[in-house]
Amino acid sequence: MKLVNIFKTGMAKTMLVLALATAFTGCKKFLDTARQGGYDEENYPYPGGSGPYDQYIFGAYNSLRDYNVHVDGFINATSIRSDDADKGSTPSDGGADVISMDNFPVLPSSGRANALWTGYYGLINKCNSTLYQIGTNTNIVTTDAIKVQSQAEVRFIRGYAYFMLTRFFGRVPIIDTLFADPAVQNNVPQSTTAQLYSFIEKDLTFAAANLPSSWDASKFAGRITSGAANGMLAKVYLTQKKWAAAMGAASLVMNSGQYDLSTPYATIFSEEGENSKESIFEVQGRADANNPTAQGIQYASLQGVRGAGAWDLGWGWNTPSTALEAAYEPNDPRKARTILYTSTATTPGLTIYGEVTPVGLPNPRYNNKVYTNPSIRATVGNRQGWWMNVRILRYADVVLMYAEAANEVGGTANITAAGNALNLVRKRARGSNAAILPDVTTTDQAVLRDAIRKERRVELAMEHDRFFDLVRWGVAQATLNAAGKTNFLDSRDVLLPIPQTQIDLSKGVLTQNAGY
Amino acid sequence: MKKNETAPVSDKVLLYLKLTKIMKLTSALLLFACLQVSATGWSQEKITLKMTAAEIKKVLFAIESKSDYRFLFTEEMIKGKPRVNVDVVQASVSEVLDKVLLNTGISYKVLGTNLVVLKDGVAAAEISMEAIRVSGKITGASGEAIAGVSILVKGTNIGTTTNTEGVFTITVPDANAKLVITSLGFETQEIALAGRSTLNLTLVPAYTTLDQVVVVGYGTQKKRDLTGSITTVKGDDVAKMPNTNPISSLQGRVAGLTVANSGVAGASPVVRIRGVNSTNSASPVYVVDGVLQDNIDFLNPADIETIDVLRDPSSIAIYGLRGANGVIAVTSKKAARGQTKINFQSSIGVQSVTDKIAVTDAAGFKKLYAAQLANLNAAPFDFTNYTANTNWQNEILRSALISTNNLSISNSGDKSSTYLSVGYNKQDGVVKYDSYEKYMFRLNQEVRFNNKIKVGGEVNAFHWIQNPSGVSLTNALWAAPIVPIQVDANTYYSMPSFQRAQVGNPIATLNRNRGTSINKGFRFIGTMYAEVKFLQNFTFKSTVYADLGFNNARSYTPLPYYFVNLGEGAAPTTTTYDNTIRTSVTQEQAEYKRFQQDHTLTFDKALGGGHKITALAGFTSIYSESTYINGNRRDTTVNVPNNPDFWYISTINSNNPGNFGGGGGKSSLMGLFGRVNYAYNNKYLVNATIRRDGSSKFAPQNRWGTFGSVGLGWVASEESFIKDVKAIDYLKFRASWGQTGNANGFADNLYKPGISNASTAIFGNNVYTAIQAAYIPDPNLHWEVVTGTDIGIDFKTLHNRLSAEITYYNRKTTDILTAVSLPNETRSYFTNLGSITNKGIEVSFTWSDQVGKDFSYSVSPNFSYNKNVVNSIGDNTNFQLIGNGGANLTETGKSIGYFYGYRQIGIYQSTAELGKQPRFTNSLPGDIAYADVNGDGVLSPADRTYLGTPFPPYSYGLNISAAYKGFDILLEGQGVAGNKIYTQRRIANFATLNYESNRLNAWTGGGTTNVEPILDNTRGNNFLFSSYFLEPGDYFRIRTVQIGYTFAANALSKVGISKARIYISGQNIKSWSKVTGYSPEAQIGSILGGGADNGVYPVPAVYSFGLNVTF
């Protein structure tokens, strides 16, 4: 009865109201739950000092190691498609998707084409988001000079990504900013190849103008330089047959004093040859026992020797073709550094470390340029070579680009300069053996053109430029058909199909390439 | 019994007498309360009473309050009688009554001590008191005593109830009186005594569920008063199935509820209520005695009293926050009043896989691989050393044991009740060495200080141990059958070179990983509540809950085995050992905490004149938090032994390489709610709910949402013009509309930009931390809203033997919270997008009947149809949602996640035929010919089309039970129709894998087949997603066949057993379907990419024996 009285007096009502009021004032706080164990953009403790944007930029560097950027699709589209390499492994390994990269046509349903698309756009988005941070993030206070240099660094990466996309797909949408409504990004139509090249040139030119020519090698070995930007620019110009511009850009690299041909050819591709004087743009990977894969790239793993037990070094993809084997001049030492032979009953195959390869591996040849040092395998506790850097642009490539461009510009002086540049590369390849790879002495533009193209093939064999070279030289169909890739059609296969998944996601705003 | 306690009870009861035609329960309560004592004569008690112009009823109450006398009468009897004046001092009750009842025509008689029966229009002498005593025992179908059964002499208010032994004694007015025997949950029976003085009776379970109490959220309601769609499944029906997870047993029982089971030991099934409403989570919320849960894995099936499945908007609205995908409310067992019971249940069974996937044997494989190589123009494979014929599936599958055990003790007195239970379940998986054990403890206690205040609490403790299988089913499906298993315990054969890198020896993998993972979890769920009733009509209840979970796992990577690589061609046979693999150990620990509080104030009053109102206001909040850490360390010099005693990180020297991780989460929800239930004359029902919800998942400005519902019901059978229609026993129309907010399954903090620092930049040998936006944030994220309408009809006819519920629903979800894949973008984007409608019909029938004395049976079929349509996927966007690599598409106007691809029309038989048909530019003979859907003469991506839905639109179940004397039999079947299953395991072509048997019919030249394409995995066109990879998902399965026998009670009572039942049961013993996978149960877990069968774990047949004993 007492209880009833309390309620009758209204005391309880008051208590209830008080209790509820307390609850409501607590509401706001109660529902404000901060992220646990992670940062928001606004509370990230951005480091001070010289490179406050570095951490964003490094996000783009991380993506350079992505599987979809420089591993599976990349190896397929740049090398397996060319006459330098076959798919490798066992006949059915990889299925139709990889086999079609070897002998065409690649279908719009290709998972690898789609992976390349998402991989490179992932890279581009990181660049755009870094540029957005530089433009808007008030939590980061720094000098204008650092802002410009930071912009230059990501614009190099973005320009490079668009260059790759353009060479793969021909027409892709230009996305150069973050959209307030991200869904808008879905419906950006494709730009023409010409528009894309103009965009790429702008990014790379800005990068070349605002990047340092070198970084402190003890801290930032392999970080992007103005040399990398000029070298890439040379390739962009070359691709567009802007010969004089290409020659100019290449000579800027050659005159920069940062690079030379002093590294022996045999050393360039081994672990000890990483970030040598030869290196202009090299995707960096490393590994140790703690991190056998996380800080590396799976690039070498796809191409490693496909054996069992200790010889299980990888998938055995991207094997040097018989056409490549035949392309070398007699006794060219570069051949042995490019092709690793499987032992046969009669002939042992030797690695550069003196090991004998097994008999009866699924493939007679493997890519020797990704062969890893067995002592590093043991230290890391992993055989798959995730620590192996990917050589994207090296000095000999620039020298040969210079030679090609100079020869095409023509005129005696230029043709001579072209021949000289070519011979620099041959000289290094020759080493101390005067009996091989004699200097090319011709001044006939057409003969020299052939010589440069042949040199380019063997010097840069398995280095991901051959397919693009054939396309830009206009000889892709003839060459590839002759090499046994009989399905190749210039009218269709010089470009990959726009991935059907992307067309679907865009609900038809993206359109398919001709011939597919 | 103290008088001030009983008075309000009888007051309330009398009102019920007037309000309800059916008064079984209430009269039983009344009699129970009043007729305990049986003696005759007036006591000499004197009372003083003064009342003026008082209703007779009031006077009688006054007498009750001043004396020990109790009155039995009905409202009708005293209705319209004149008011009376009373003014007595120290008068006996008989004197007072004589005065009061003078001129009313009402006589009275004292039946026992202090019990006075009133009767209208009958002389007192005629209120017969011949003192004929009748006694007897009331039992249930299986002979168990039933306590609390009401026995009423027809036409009088004379009655009694049975005691805990089921025994009653009653004094009846004449030897030919009729007794009306009523008990909750049983058929009411009228028995003419015909001179008998002993009456033993077996009650027949009532198949009328109208008086059943169902959970409606912060309260209960009678089924008859519902305006929504709620189906109740009895706990006993769940407990008698030998499943370790109680939800598995709901499959096929409730229209509109889809349960897809998994055979993985201990796995929870996928549950959908009325289709898929959202793109991010479609799972219902579970409410266990008020606590919101994501699963009920921790519950012991034997502890479940009832499971209520709430499906319509008016029922789920009160759960706000989390209820949008439907609610499964579980009420656990508590001790019944006056009960002392010990129950033991146990079952043991054997599981086996009935439908294996047909793959080629060694001969078939050799034939097909040779054909494939020939088609590729590749050199033939040298099979010389591959002489084995291994059936890898048989090697990894086994017959596995399953057992469930439970012991419960319940005890309840006047002041408190206690329920205590202990359970242990163990399930071995049919894939070798997969196993799951769970231990469950539960203590439920309620203390009643008086009938106004009670407090209670519950503690659940749950411990599970899981050892996952070390091998995957696809591994066994894909491994070439030509490889022998092993040389010795440490040396196995590796797969042939064409799949060595991709496929491991399944038995080597299985054995190497055997017992190397120890996963354990602990969970404690505690509840405390206090309930206060005041002012007669108010109840305030406060409840606090805590749910604490701790998981930990330890695992070990053992040394590898030696592998024999059989010689192939030039390659000699070698034995290899991978010396780069060293042992390592991993430890993981996770902690989950959740706190919930509910405070409700309920007002419940019958206002007189037929109006009844129940109003509820409440406040709830949920806070949850989690943390986890994990780490591993790898040996480089010595190896950790294969012994769990060493599987701790500390075993390995800390200078060895290792990785460590950790993280956490926090989120909170809050809600204010109110509900009013109003009923007029039990005929017109109204239910209205309003709820305001806040969630930490949204930015402050979008945090709060207001939602609500209205439900209306009309019990037409209460109308006078229908009441007399014999054919209609019960008829109700109901309709409801409601809105609920939803953010289920959506991660926290997505509205603000987050940073991921998981990546690194490498320069030379230097490692630098990199950061990037973790996702694309949408600051405007807000509630997804589910709006639904329900219209239903419930009826009973043919003397309550046939009952039916038919419901039409239309539910629309707007502003769906979606993770969108953007083209040209790798980061996720979470936003509110578009709307989805689910419309459907649910039909349930039950026919139950008693034939003769000993045989009863019931048949309950149910059926549901759901049509899902995506109304839009965003107003301002122009893109599509694709799932599973493009096999599923979600777009406006079609059902969610439908299969989208090419339609096979045949196989190109020849080059000549190829020229005449639409084709791809690279099509060749032997390739699949697809339909030229757009009719442009060539095949292109534009020819992809609708190929079906992964979500079954039709589902049905059938439940047949029968009992004859001590025997009972149960037969349950269940099925779905109209969906497709994607045999994605067959599309894998990354290596040469073992072939499924359909490939034996592959095309080998003109006219060989029009279905199976050529064996050539370079023909990419044949791997495009098409109807070739789809099969009809329709199936019908015999879910359960169970035969039980209950021993006669008297046979057992000597040994102290009051009830004992044994049974044998078979589950999933037969399925009819065209599905080629292990299980035809649709893979509905993924919403945007559903229906893919990638070697789904078999749902095994289970044959078991069980026992249920009550002491």
Give the helix/strand layout:
The complex is a heterodimer of chains A (516) and B (1111).
Chain A: H1 2-9, H2 11-31, E1 39-40, H3 54-64, H4 67-70, H5 72-80, E2 85-88, H6 95-103, H7 111-136, H8 144-169, H9 193-210, H10 217-220, H11 226-239, H12 243-254, H13 265-268, E3 279-283, H14 299-303, E4 317-320, H15 322-327, H16 333-338, E5 339-341, E6 365-367, H17 374-380, E7 390-394, H18 395-409, H19 412-430, H20 445-459, H21 466-473, H22 476-482, H23 490-493, H24 500-505
Chain B: H1 3-19, H2 24-34, E1 46-54, H3 56-66, E2 70-72, H4 75-78, E3 84-92, H5 93-101, E4 106-112, E5 115-120, E6 132-139, E7 150-153, E8 159-161, E9 167-172, E10 178-182, E11 189-192, E12 201-202, E13 213-215, E14 220-222, E15 230-234, H6 235-239, E16 257-260, E17 270-273, E18 285-288, E19 291-293, E20 304-310, H7 313-316, E21 327-332, E22 340-352, H8 362-375, H9 392-396, E23 400-412, E24 416-428, E25 435-448, E26 453-467, H10 473-478, E27 486-488, E28 491-493, H11 506-513, E29 517-534, E30 538-557, E31 562-565, E32 574-577, E33 584-608, E34 611-634, E35 658-680, E36 684-695, E37 704-715, H12 720-723, E38 728-742, E39 754-763, E40 766-773, E41 784-797, E42 802-820, E43 829-851, E44 855-872, E45 881-883, E46 888-890, E47 898-901, E48 904-907, H13 911-916, E49 928-930, E50 945-948, E51 954-964, E52 967-977, E53 980-982, E54 1030-1032, E55 1035-1046, H14 1049-1053, E56 1059-1073, E57 1101-1110
Parallel strand pairs in B: 2-5, 6-12, 18-21, 28-31
Antiparallel strand pairs in B: 1-3, 4-5, 6-9, 7-8, 7-10, 10-11, 13-14, 15-20, 16-17, 18-19, 20-21, 22-23, 22-57, 23-24, 24-25, 25-26, 26-29, 27-28, 29-30, 30-33, 31-32, 33-34, 34-35, 35-36, 36-37, 37-38, 38-41, 39-40, 41-42, 42-43, 43-44, 44-51, 45-46, 46-47, 47-50, 48-49, 51-52, 52-55, 53-54, 55-56, ...
